[in-house]
Amino acid sequence: MPPQPGHLIDAAPITTATSLDNLSLLESISNNLREHGYSVHLNALPHLLSHCLLNQAIATPSKEFRPASIGRRSKLSLQTDIRNDQISWINDSTVAGIAWIAWIAELQSYLNAHLFLGLFSFESHYAHYGPGCFYGRHQDAFHGDANRVLSLIVYLNPEWQAGDAGELVLYTGTSPEERLVIHPQFGTLVMFLSEDIEHEVLVTNKDRRSIAGWFHLNQSHGGLIDPPS
Ligand SMILES: O=C(O)CCC(=O)C(=O)O
Ligand SMILES: [Fe+2]
């Protein structure tokens, strides 16, 4: 049964970042993560970069998109009752990919210098949720797993309307009422601690494009080199 919209409450700090320069944006993300464990900024990405990524997401042939699975490594499985989006991993083989990875590197080094999270590597994919698609309530990492530390999502949907649905819901507290509803609007950046914040993507009525990514710790040990995807 796909998640239903229900009664949603807008709450908590969301920053409209148009007036922030890049350094102020990094500072604001870092402070939000330290104080709340999550951070949401509208218009966070440089406009040119968002456009470049959207064009690349659209230009990527559909055969390079795969149904998304859940779980990790040998435990990966397709479960379309939990999620039914399509994904394509991002690498440095395109100009958009190179620009994206460079932007992320700056973010990573700022957060490592200010939050001491020990972020070591990053992986990300384009995601496409067609009409009717969703991703049920989940966590991106589990306590003790210590693989994914920080989750990041950027939306690539110009002119998203409220009726288009497809909101991201972050469960920010212990009660179900404590939740933050985020419209997948072009340029919005969402980050949260992967082990701490449960979240879900409500059924979308329209094609919904985004990038989802995760910072990892260095998990190399016993001759096994990190990061495997
Ligand atoms: O697209 C979103 O809003 C969230 C996606 C997500 O939770 C995930 O890919 O793990
Ligand atoms: Fe997630």
UniProtKB/TrEMBL annotation:
Keyword field: Dioxygenase, Iron, Metal-binding, Oxidoreductase, Vitamin C
Fe2OG dioxygenase domain ranges (all copies): 115-217
A single BP term in Gene Ontology: cellular response to hypoxia
InterPro entries for the chain: HIF_prolyl_hydroxylases, Oxoglu/Fe-dep_dioxygenase_dom, Pro_4_hyd_alph, Pro_4_hyd_alph_FE2OG_OXY
PROSITE patterns, sorted: FE2OG_OXY
Keyword set includes Metal-binding: yes
Example of a GO MF term: peptidyl-proline dioxygenase activity
Obligatory cofactor(s): L-ascorbate
SMART domains associated with the record: P4Hc (SM00702)
Keyword match Iron: yes
PANTHER family: EGL NINE HOMOLOG-RELATED, HIF PROLYL HYDROXYLASE, ISOFORM C
Protein name in UniProt: Fe2OG dioxygenase domain-containing protein
UniProt organism field: Granulosicoccus antarcticus IMCC3135
